[in-house]
Amino acid sequence: MLMTGSDIIIECLLEQGVDTVFGYPGGAVLNIYDSLYMYSDKIRHVITAHEQAACHAADGYSRTTGRTGVVIATSGPGATNLVTGIATAYMDSIPMVAITGNVSTNLLGLDSFQEVDICGITMPVVKHNYIVKDISQLADTIREAFAIANEGRKGPVLIDVPKDVTIAKTEFTRTQPKPPVHHNPYDINAQIEAAAELIKAAEKPFIYAGGGVVSCDAVDEMSEFVRKCDAPVSLSLMGQCAYDNTKDNYIGMMGMHGTKTAALALSHCDLMVVLGSRFSDRVLCNANTFAKGTKIIHVEIDPAEIGKNIEVDCYVNGDLKYILSRFNEILPDMNHEGWMGRIADWKGKYSLKMIPFCDEEEVLPQDVIEELDRLTNGEAVITTEVGQHQMWAAQYYNFKNPRSFASSGGLGTMGYGLGAAIGSKCGNPDKPVINIAGDGSFFMNCNELSSLAKHNIPVIELVFENNVLGMVRQWQRLFYDKRFSQTDIDRGTDFMKLAEAFGIEGLVIEKKSDVTPVLERALSLNKPVLIECRIHKDINVLPMVPAGKDISEPIMAIDLD
Q1: Is there a catalytic annotation at residue 471?
Q2: Are 286 and 155 contained in the same domain?
Q3: Is-catalytic flag, 290?
Q4: Is 224 a catalytic residue?
Q5: Fewest C-beta in 10 Å: which of 256, 478, 507, 556?
Q6: Residue that terminates a domain, selected from 285, 317, 349
Q7: Catalytic-residue membership of 443
Q8: Which distant-in-sequence residues (6+ apart) come within 8 Å of 152 by Cβ?
Q9: Exactly one of 1, 38, 42, 113 is catalytic; which is it?
Q10: Does residue 134 lie in a domain region?
């Protein structure tokens, strides 16, 4: 069948099971958008107010559905506006295909209007990228891009298509997409058996899991593995929905803002089993003292991460779903009653608790998030921006289900969450979706409230307003002798008038007694809602391990005098 390049792009997306794309039109992608118009009964396009938000939307869609997110942008600034979103996906191993337009092939290299080398720019933050100058290669390139995005350690792939290629014609034949391939090493079963022997010999095992568990759909296998090992479980920020947070085994997040219980479990265990997580600096805090004297098993799909930041005693490199299935086949049911008793004691002693500054009517983020958890029964999809509120969401919301949390971990992208919430709601129309934000991040993407209104996407935007950059201010208090340089962001903005201007519902939480009725109303409306939640500017994220300090010695209180 003879088809234009733009029609081939859409047909290839349909081959891959794509039903939703995010983007923003422009000159170099006009032909693609004309094809989207003709295929509008098969593919939904969601336009955002800014290309970066479209990229974050594709990211959130992917994280919360397990499908490949797709974003489209025009050449030049349209393409470069995707870079932060692509880098965010790359750092967190999120499968995404970005399709950018470019000037016609005869204009490449001439500094033409809105010409940019987007392949060169994005090379460090993609698994692979392409510029397609020959229409005969277009279909196979798109198919290959989806395969690369989803095989092994997942991530974003970019396809740059000059405008003349989108209007050119060639023969096109539909094909069935190939399932992703995970290349397990030839000796993986020997690695699994060696690790299993260490697990069976452990008296005080400790399981630490990350986003890789969710990425490879191994949540059920991990749950069974935990049961067999009878061990405490800690999760990374990216791994928040890898294990039901309401289970007795769960002891909270580990790392810079992890729980004291997780730190103690690490300090006293005799074996640490790491599943689908890299040893980032925010987890290690101090690589020289981390888990000294403890045996470590690292189970990871990316061989580059094994031994990169910390030496391990044993590793299994391969597909985590397969590895955990094999562990569950060969491991016996174990019992560590004494060890789990100590864990339970620590959980009780070091439970997280915020203390009011003023009176009992003061609004505490813990109360808000825990009430949100109760009202949604832990069944909502939570997205976040980056800052204090991000840590509070991870600390106080009890995630029960896989793919119910979307947040920028590796890159720490302020302005990520609202776009991600748009994508999450598009992919999960039957679930409540709440973006938890701080006012600093909110001012980076509040224009996307217009996207909620335009498409009538019933996302709740919950903004903790303290008129400061809270996390930066917290560091300035501790390490810069209270020199609060440029962290006061009180702009005098009336959030309710802003909501009205954008055509969405606005609600305010200004005292503790407001929390339940406001959240109940927001959840009942089934339309876009902005909640302004006013909190004290000196509420901090605790525990906190200063950079370079030992993870076992977190700061548990901060003197405000």
Answers
A1: yes
A2: no
A3: no
A4: no
A5: 556
A6: 349
A7: no
A8: 182, 183, 301, 302
A9: 113
A10: yes
